[in-house]
TrEMBL record:
This is TPR repeat-containing protein 03. Keywords: Repeat, Signal, TPR repeat. Coiled coil: none annotated. TPR repeats lie at residues 42-75, 76-109. Residues 1-21 form the signal peptide. The keyword S-adenosyl-L-methionine does not apply. PANTHER family: CELLULOSE SYNTHASE OPERON PROTEIN C, TPR REPEAT-CONTAINING PROTEIN MJ0263. It comes from the Bacteria. InterPro entries: TPR-like_helical_dom_sf, TPR_rpt, Ycf3/AcsC/BcsC/TPR_MFPF.
């Protein structure tokens, strides 16, 4: 009986020691999980933003696109859709700035190139 308790104690201490050592020496898996979680949060806020955009609720959509950008600062699709919301809200210069940011983060993003001049045309026609 004493031997079983001794073996159990040794195994528990060994397991505890290796767990602590791995946490002290390598936080990379935890950091990778946090990065993945931020990407997931960005995608979820983006999808909610798209839903609001389709309902023509531009302010709510922009809030969600802003959150998506917060979690993934180079999220080109979020910048383009935020730009669409801004354009629909009459904020043409800010829309163009968002299209420019989308292009900055993804040079070959056709939607950004398509929407950018449309914002300028709508802005000129409103004058």
């Amino acid at each position: 009986m004493k031997f079983v308790k001794y073996i159990t104690a040794v195994l528990l201490l060994t397991l505890l020691n290796t767990t602590i050592a791995s946490k002290l020496n390598n936080n990379q898996p935890v950091q990778q999980k946090l990065i993945r979680n931020k990407a997931i949060l960005a995608e979820k806020h983006f999808n909610v933003g798209i839903s609001f955009l389709e309902l023509n609720k531009y302010q709510e959509a922009m809030k969600n696109f802003d959150l998506a950008i917060k979690y993934k600062p180079n999220y080109s699709k979020a910048y383009v859709n935020k730009g669409v919301c801004l354009c629909e809200s009459g904020q043409y210069q800010k829309a163009i700035e968002n299209f420019d940011l989308a292009i900055k983060y993804k040079l070959n993003y056709a939607n950004a190139y398509y929407n950018r001049p449309l914002s300028k045309l709508v802005n000129v026609s409103k004058l």
